[in-house]
Input
Amino acid sequence: MNRLFCFLCLAAIAAALGSSAGCNRQHYRLKADREVYSVLKQGTNDPRWQIDDYHLTPDSTSRMFVPYSPDKEPMPPDDPAAHRKMHRVAGMKGSPYWYEHGVTQTVENPRWRQFLLLNEKGEVPLDKDQAITLARLHSSEYQEHLENLYAAAMRVSQARFRYDVQFFGDGSLTYTDPSSGTQRLTNRAEAGAQRRLASGTQWVVDLANSVTWTFTGQSSWSMDSAINVGLTQPLLRGAGRKVVLENLTQEERNFLRAVRQMVLFQQGHYTRIVTGQVPTNSGASSGLGIYSLLSEQIQIQNQRRNVVGLEENLMRFIEMFDANQGSSVVQIEETRQSLLNSQSQLLGEINTHQNRIEQYIRSLGLPPDLKVSISDPLLEQFQLTSLELTVLTEDVADILVAIRKRNDPLPEYFQEKTKDIVRRARGEIIVLSQDLDILQRSMPERRRSLKDLEDALAERLEGGERIDPSIYSTDVFEDRITKLRTQHIPQNLSRLQALFTILDLFANTDEQESREMIREGSFDESVQRALRTLDIRALARSISMDMPVPSEMAKETLEPDLSDQSRQEVRRIIVELRRRDDYREWVREVFSVFQNELVLLSLMQTRTRLDSMTLVPVSVTAEEAFLSASEHHLEWMNEKTKLVDAWRQIDIRADSLKGVLDLSLSGTAGRRDTQSGQAGDLSQIQASLQWDSPLNRYAEMMSYRSSQIDYQRARRAYYTYVDTVHANLRNTVRNLQMGKINFEINRNAVLVGAIRVDAMQLQMEQQRQISANAARDLISALDGLLASQNRLLAVWVNYETQRMLLDYGMGTMALDDRGRWIDPGAMGSAAVPVHTSEVVPLPLPLDRIVPPQLNRRYVAE
Output
């Protein structure tokens, strides 16, 4: 007996352990993923909110990737004091199995840096495309939104499961050993299935079997077997598909909103990464984006040029003071003070920029110590003067410093340096030629944009606004470009070509040979033409942009053929050089003129690049944008969903006001067998009707009334949202229109500022005496140019940001498979895309539409 009992106990324990352990963790994790991914595939296949290649697990190159089994992750680093509580707590010994999966000292993926693409400096090149790629790989915020979508799909799967056939089974082994009486061992097993129908009906079918052994006195056994069937149908409260399917309906609608919200987040995430603007219900909130970092870099470059300009002018003032040419100590110290302030501002901007870079890369999910290089060809157009030309001008200034030290011989590197400078200057002429080609290609777009701007300003001008007509005049633009191409640039290149000839002479002959050429007048014809073109004896030259020059830009040189009169002029120049007998002064004058011409070349480059800039045209009206948003914006769809959800709750809570009336049917078919051979019939049928009179419905009444108030709040929130969207779109359209005007205004302001700075610098070089206010005027001109350049850049960045926000606000924004914005280009009423996906029409019974005035009845009642 005892052996039998022990055996049965062991068998029961083994069966219990086996049944309760189930499958391993991996099985359940993968099964859960299959269920959820199935729901996601069904819910994201609409082209309006399609999500391709959804994966909850981060990529193996991500910082968030887990390089261990997710079902057996090792213990992460722990605080030592807190960790001791896992081994002994409140005087009791803890579990010894905390280390069964191992221990790790890292929380992030230890190998993620190995997958970064680095440049030759060990930096991560970061443009707008690379930034969004890194953010999708490493951003915790992005991963959390993926997890939110997974959780929404999980709740849908759980809600659907409630309406599936659910199987169950259990069993027990019970031993009863009272102090007196009969000892029994009972083994019970049960298996069945149940399901809830959309009508509210719930049925259950189960098969039960029970065996009992009696050990006191004469041993015996008995066995009961039965099939039980039950069915319950609510008739009042809880009846009807509206109430029964409420939980599933709400979860399905919530999931649809979550899918749309994920797509909206992807669009807003790109917008934030690139522009720093975060689209919200109340408008776009400012943040930190790749545009702002690139803008800061260009502003730092502008500030650096400002510093270089102040350094050069400080040097000029000091030289003029030493030569007694009108410069004063006040001018020198005023320029020096401005230089120190600009240098301090430059250092501050660099430091702030580095801090903002670290802040930005942290928003991408990257550590602040990661070295990055911010660059993007999108903003290269705002480098109005090539960096190479700026450095070349600085190098010429350095040579001039050495040349002006008359007591010292020319540096040994003079000839080689001169050759290098000429080579680089010729390269900048090629760059200017390329810039002219770009300007030529942009001319049709520039004419069209100016005409559109003129038409858009017509109403403003009629309203009394004062705007300089030259800003939008096509004739003024055409005249400016014609003079640039046929007069200003050819004149500059003509003198540069002549300078190249003289500089080549310096680079290929030493001082003694040059002096011999001057004494004998043995310059070859190319040098004579260069001397005639430059007329070094008369350095004064007008800066007027209307000076008559040759009508066409020459490819090689614009020096005229030497006529008899020209030859006489050349002989006069050589005689003057021979009379002065000062080779060093001649070299200084040539390099001074060369520096001036490089300044003018930078001005030509600035003017060419300025007039080549174009804005992507946007002609969408506020009404067209609002109509597009009402049809296509996913957030607007979600707001409608939320409004109807609040309305649905009125009927759902009204159901609780009803009384309870449930019909229940149950039946059992079974029998009992015993060791003696006796049998008994356990079959029965039972029907019952249960009710609960609605005498006390206080809580339900208050809940019902709250649902009505909640719906009224939802109504007000909805049309407030619509008003907000309308206002935001109108503001965005106005900002775009204003951006066009401001861009043209600031384009002209930069042009004026550049001409002003170059004119003043040239006048300082050409005049022997300078005015008392020269330093102050030059500082003011440099500051004005810097401010104009920064404003132009800010206007362009804001325009591009508003253009992206308009695409987002209209609900037409599209991303490619890498999460990058598909730029729609020109945006107009005809360019607004219309979704062509087949949408099942709503089953709205038109005959049930209630006229608004009928809703007033409840007031009288």
Q: What stands out?
A: Confidence is low (pLDDT under 50) at residues 536-560, 834-838, 854-861. Residues 376-469+480-613 form one domain. The chain has 21 helices and 13 strands. The first strand starts at residue 88 and ends at 89.
